[in-house]
Amino acid sequence: MKLFILGGAGYIGSHMVKQAYLSGHDIVTLDNLSTGHKDAVKNGLFEYCDLLDSNRLNELFIQHQPDAVMHFSAFSLVGESVSDPYKYYQNNVSGTLNLLKIMVDNNCKKLIFSSSAAVFGTPHYIPIDENHPKEPINPYGKSKLMVEQMLEDFDIAYGLKYVVFRYFNAAGHDAEGELSERHDPETHLLPLVIKALKRERKSISIFGTDYDTPDGTCVRDYIHVEDLCQAHLQGLEYLNEKDVNSSSYNLGNGNGFSVREIIEKVKQISKEDFLVNEESRRDGDPDVLIASSEKAKQDLGFSTKYSTLEAIIKTLL
């Protein structure tokens, strides 16, 4: 298939470009490079484009005539979304609305959308399945939920079929080491721990040691980025079946790892020590976030290749 991969110069998007290319698809990456890196796009064509630029976006659809779209072009920093909600609603919601209209106008009606566990808000129960109430507690999560609601309406009105994937914590690098996580600023735990290990930062901080968890630190579900990409390819196969219904899936490992557990595992594997500081809790951090991916397993045949914390960490070293 000819695929448009929006946000393909970012962390998850660049891994998706590589995996889709290796699977035989014809790839065109669209990215405005606001947070992505052009040199991370190793395969296919690259087109500079902002989703808010309707004319440019429409021209590219007419020129390339994609069969399907994978959409990773969102701002995703929770704290920033609270301090600057306009930026998040403009890009994540208005930009996607432009995309959906242009897709329908160009008769491209298959979309894989990168959503987030942030749509659920504070968990009512663990593990979190697709039936969990959606009660986002920040503009980022709200923007993702708004897009999910828009997709439902576009399906009913225009027949645009979609698969939504809600990630928990993406982690790791490709097995060949060609790609990496290069957020600026970096906010994700694992790359920050690796920076402390490599002395690229003085220390790593644990925010809160009094959570209701076995060791008092937050527990999160980490899924390897290549496993995420394989799920997207399975979602694409699903959309290619006849008379399919649009669907949404939670993607995680199904296992929770605490902040302290991750730090100790990195020390154990690397046989190196580094400074760890204990600080007070941050606002809005739930004790535990773990996904149920049972629906994706049943419908798509989803499984994780990197099922252990050690396997994920080793791709970062």
Topology:
Blueprint lengths: L1 E5 L4 H12 L3 E6 L13 E4 L5 H11 L3 E4 L6 H6 L1 H21 L4 E7 L22 H20 L2 E7 L1 E3 L17 H9 L5 E5 L11 E2 L1 E3 H15 L7 E5 L5 E2 H12 L4 E5 L8 E2 L4 H7 L8 H6 L3
Parallel strand pairs: 1-2, 1-4, 2-3, 4-5, 5-6, 6-11, 7-10, 8-13, 9-14
Antiparallel strand pairs: 9-12
Top keywords for this entry?
single chain; 317 residues; alpha/beta; Rossmann fold; UDP-galactose 4-epimerase, domain 1; 2 domains; seven-stranded parallel beta sheet; three-stranded mixed beta sheet; 10 helices; 38% helix; globular
The domain count comes to 2
The CATH homologous superfamily of the largest domain is named NAD(P)-binding Rossmann-like Domain
| Mass-distribution shape | globular
Query: What is the element string, with H for helices and E for strands?
Result: EHEEHEHHEHEEHEEEHEEHEEHH
Gyration radius, to the nearest Å? Answer: 19 Å
Distance between the termini: 34 Å
Report the strand count.
Answer: 14
**How much helicity do the residues have?**
25-40%
The main sheet orders its strands as 3-2-1-4-5-6-11
- How much of the sequence lies in strands comes to 15-25%
Question: What is the quaternary state of this protein?
Answer: single chain
Number of helices: 10
Say what the CATH topology of the largest domain is: Rossmann fold
Largest sheet: 7 strands, parallel
